[in-house]
Amino acid sequence: MALERTLSIIKPDAVAKNVIGEIESRFEKAGLRIVAMKMMHLSREKAEGFYAEHKERPFFKDLVDFMTSGPVVVQVLEGEDAIKANRDLMGATNPQEAEAGTIRADFAQSIDANAVHGSDSAASAEREVSYFFADDEICPRA
Ligand code: RTP
Ligand code: MG
């Protein structure tokens, strides 16, 4: 296992449901540390650039509409095996298929409004962390 960083987003549906703290608590209880954090309302341009890998997919417009529909919390989580640990806590993309006790099973309504984002690989994590944070905005504590 290695100490890793991963990019996490609490999406507009979860912010609107007022469960930011409950979601953060799951990360902390699992031993992940929040080492950078900001709340923001994504512009279309910022959301499109973030999800550029999906730009030819049929759901791209809906995804950008949703991600720009309200404020989000963007953060960097640090810990052992953080990328997979975060994905495990999140559960499957479609909350209907997410394992009981995962964030998406407990807080998400649909495949679009699915509560959280997490980087899916080391390469994505590196790109996504630097997409939102400068080096001096990250405060390692591990
Ligand atoms: P995310 O990137 O948001 O963490 O989600 P993910 O890795 O679990 O899923 P991904 O395949 O990267 O898809 C990004 C987001 O696009 C929406 N989506 N809709 N209608 C569909 O078939 C479909 N597939 C994906 C989801 O909201 C997903 O989180
Ligand atoms: Mg993804």
Major β-sheet profile: 4 strands, antiparallel
How far apart the termini lie comes to 14 Å
Number of helices in the DSSP assignment = 7
Provide the residue-averaged pLDDT. 97
Number of extended strands: 4
Description of the structure:
Strands 2-3-1-4 form a four-stranded antiparallel sheet. The protein is α+β, with helices and mostly antiparallel strands and 142 residues long. It is built from seven helices and four strands; from the N terminus they run βααβααβααβα. It is globular. The mean pLDDT is 97. Helix content is 39%, strand content 20%. The site of ribavirin triphosphate (RTP) has 10 residues, from β4. Its main location: cytoplasm. GO terms for molecular function: kinase activity. Belongs to the NDK family. This is Nucleoside diphosphate kinase. It catalyses: a ribonucleoside 5'-diphosphate + ATP = a ribonucleoside 5'-triphosphate + ADP; a 2'-deoxyribonucleoside 5'-diphosphate + ATP = a 2'-deoxyribonucleoside 5'-triphosphate + ADP.
Which features would summarize this protein structure in a list?
binds magnesium ion, binds ribavirin triphosphate, 39% helix, four-stranded antiparallel β-sheet, 7 helices, 142 residues, alpha+beta
In a few lines, what is going on in this structure?
With 142 residues, the protein is α+β, with helices and mostly antiparallel strands. It has 7 helices and 4 strands; from the N terminus they run βααβααβααβα.
SSE blueprint and pairings:
Elements: E1 3-10, H1 12-16, H2 20-29, E2 33-40, H3 44-50, H4 60-67, E3 72-80, H5 82-90, H6 103-107, E4 116-118, H7 122-132
Antiparallel strand pairs: 1-3, 1-4, 2-3
